[in-house]
Specification:
It comes from Nostoc favosum CHAB5714. It is found in: Cell membrane. It is built from 12 helices and no strands. It has helices at residues 2-23, 25-30, 35-65, 72-83, 93-104, 109-138, 144-161, 164-181, 199-223, 231-247, 257-266, 272-305. The longest helix is centred in the last third of the chain and has 34 residues, at 272-305. The model has no long low-confidence stretch (mean pLDDT 82).
Amino acid sequence: MKQFSRWIILGATLFFLAKALKDNWIGVTAIRIDGVGWAIIAIATGVTLLAHTWAGWIWTWILQDLNQPVSPPQFIQVYLKTNIAKYLPGNIWHYYGRIVAAKNANVSAGAATLSVLLEPLLMLAAALIIIVLCSSQFAAANSTFVLQILQLLSLAVVLCAIHPWFLNPVIRFLYKLKAKKSAVTTEPTVPFSLKSYPLRPLLGELGFMGLRATGFILTMFALGSFNVNQVPLLLGAFSCAWLLGLVIPGAPGGLGVFEATAYELLRHHFPSALVFSAIALYRLISILAETAGAALAWLDERLAKS
């Protein structure tokens, strides 16, 4: 059923996007990008690459908060090299690659696993904070209050879930459960725990979301124009679409879900053809930035060894 539901979600989003392309085909083909536009697209690609590099650095903060001494340059390389694997079916292989690389660098297996679980939770919390602040810009007037209550409740649950008061007992329980199944263990009784609330990584993830949204906003600006007072609208809609792409199954890297959500949220505020073109172009920019990040990390690693 899980595999079947993934195919249903993927098929539905692709059908929606295909229909949107059909409805806006004439407008999409009429869009032209001048020299300035291409320069802005290049900047958007650089900002998106910076966002992924920044996310790799935040991962090292999470590991440090779990009392694991790590080398930031080395782990940023790992992060960038594994990031492209999120487009593989299953949407877990980038996490698996990071766990394996962290264990090979003498990081506790439990801490490595927890770090890749905490990272998306912190990203989720950061996206929810932005959505709560900006949701009134893109939500219908008669549903704004209800949506904000649901968003605040969701944010409260996520923020509590990453608090040491909740997280450390869960860690201890899981470790004891694992110890009962294994007669021999070489790890200490409590191999890792959060000493304080992960505020620094949370603030860092807010910066990550800001950088990702900036890349999208620059892409919109390269294809058309908008008012400065519409930036919160774009920021909130991007964060909402990105969040759904993260949590909905069957969408490796949020592929399809992000595009369909962003289109639906923005098409009532901007020309539909502009929105569709910007979303499609931003997906290409994201993949290009992630591929460039993986290639640069691999090259830097090779140069360091030579």
